[in-house]
Amino acid sequence: MDDELRRKTAVQTVAAVFLPIAAISVILRCYVRGWIVKAFGWDDAAMILAMIFYAMFCGTMIGGTLYGTGYRYDSLEPRNAVTAMEYWWLCEIAYCFASIFCKISVCLFLMRITIKRIHIWTLYTVMILTVIAGVVFMFLMLLQCKPLSYFWTRAFQDPSVPGYCINIDIIIAMTYVYSGFSAFCDFTVGILPIFLVHKLHMKKQTKVAVMGILSMACIASSAVIVRIPFVQTFAEHDFLYATIEIAIWSNIETGLGITAGSLATLRPLLRVWMGSRSDPNYSSGFPGARSRSASRQLGGQDRPFPLGSLDDSVQSRLRPDKLAVTVTTIKSQRDLDGGSLSPSSSEERLTIDRPSPRLGGDIGLGIHRTFEVTQTSTDSEEVERRARA
């Protein structure tokens, strides 16, 4: 009895711990993409769907423990055991959808900073394999018995409830195949950022940090590998008791994937909180926020202050890889009265004869429309520009 109670508590604890962690990470992701960088995209929508199904997964896991998950059939009333098996069946649906949407979200996120055709097609391949493997596995698990209700009534072999299920060895074999596909996709998505970042012109510490952030999604594959030895428990008679490890590690896999995939998008939030140590020109885009970075000077001349939040043309783009974007900069009055720009400046003044409107009586600042031109054929510069966004 103590062992059964321990297994029940383990299921409840895992679901109760990973659900709020994943939810907080997704909420922070939505805040960053919707309000800080203003670039909410399909990858964020897919992660929200993954979070919804993961919440359903955790809810059905906890609900199942209230009726018998973790206990042997001999310790349960038949009615409670049937209800617990129904919850287990719903867990399969929620797990498959949460896993599929999570992997799709991570792939779409990497496509924001991917420019090489081979990398793009690699991500498309991962998404296609994820969808095919996930859908096939889900329908196999859901339709393994006919009628469907026989899945949760078969354990008691009630002759009044006729039905049959496919050979359990097929279920076990397909679970191994699906686990292999899942681990392969996770490792592919985790290794790909290394090829995206390793040629960029940045400090080694920064490069390693970016690789680690973008590769966090492959953490979920560790849970898949740990779960593989327990797949054989599908064939056990005491199903609710024997398959606890599968339920636990499936929950950990999905929770880690959602959390890691969302944490990879939170770099702008850290910049708002802590500032940017590597880019003295960085601004959060919030009025009044990070004013120190706007006032930094180099060689006695004020640097341009990019108002990135005013560029609305990229908000609805999945991959903002346009050739030129219009930005607004604030320049000192010394530059407006005839001062020369830096030789390395890429700005072109558009108001030659007309003075720019003044921002304040004695501030001495004016607003100019300038163009920031990027060359998409230079792989490393383009990837670095997108990664910093």
Automatic annotation (TrEMBL):
Residues 280-313, 334-364 are annotated as: Disordered. It comes from the Eukaryota. Pfam families: Fung_rhodopsin. It is a multi-pass membrane protein. Residues 346-356 have a biased composition (Basic and acidic residues). The chain crosses the membrane at residues 12-32, 44-67, 87-111, 123-143, 170-196, 208-230. Residues 28-271 form the Rhodopsin domain. The keyword Transmembrane applies. InterPro entries: Rhodopsin_dom_fungi, SAT4-like. One of its GO terms (cellular component) is membrane. Keywords: Membrane, Transmembrane, Transmembrane helix. The keyword Nucleotide-binding does not apply. It is found in: Membrane. Belongs to the SAT4 family. This is Rhodopsin domain-containing protein. It comes from Penicillium antarcticum. The lineage of its organism: Eukaryota, Fungi, Dikarya, Ascomycota, Pezizomycotina.
